[in-house]
Prior knowledge:
By secondary structure, the chain is mostly beta strands.
Amino acid sequence: TLESEEVRPSRQYADVRHGFNQVTGSPGFELSNTSYTDFLRSAMSGEWVTPVIVGGGAITSVDNADGTCTISRATGSWFEDGFRPGDMVKNTDGTNAGNAGLFRVLTQTSAAPLDLVIDISFNAVAWVDGTTGVFSYPGARIDIGLNLRTFTMERRFDDIIQYQTYKGCVVNAMNLTVTPDSIAGGTFDMLGMSGTDMTPTSIIDGNTPVPAPTTAPFAAFQGRVYENGIPIAVMTSMEMNLDNQRSLEGVIGSKFSPGVFEGRCSVNGSMTFFLRGNATYSKFVNETETSIWMRLQDPNDAT
């Protein structure tokens, strides 16, 4: 609101009116497979990508006897095809059923030899050496990018036939919390350019929206966490926050911003865990960089 600074004998404000308009809100969500792919694209400003093996020729494996396995290709490059550490790869090797399943990539470099090293202890398989594998990327991944995406959203009051439209909406921040005693979820913090008055006409009626997915939400009981590539079994909670720091800017002659302006993306969070030695804590004290990798199991997918 805009408040006049005019001094009046009554000691009251001379005038109060609406000022710059914007849309904000924080809808909550429970994390599940495919349910929020568009919102995640907006939050990350990226695109879902599925690496594909190009060429490759014969693919063979060698058990390293340390819980890892080296996957070699006759031709082509895992690196150039987009595979990288932390990815999950799927093997559908038909000659040895024990070799089939999902496996976590531990290392992949651009230097020769261009091999993948995977964690076979992830699935506790009895790997059979030297057999031909059929490896693929089972899903998709998304990185922080540069593509600003906005939504037009509608709030519906079907019982009184009133609808309200919000335009130029983006996911400005995303907060995710994972604890053992609850469903994994969080909030999307929205920022939008404008909102209309309520009307008896819906922008959706006459169209056919895609039905919402019915996939079951994730829980921390079906998951695992790695810190710097090492499994952690003592973490009691993890919270991750992604803040795009986007903004709206006012212009003379309008109550609305002409656009959403991109900001610097900040990622932070916190971990709570039982203290078992000082290795992780010392990284904080010494400002040592590390990596966090978490996988939550889809309860509807045994793999």
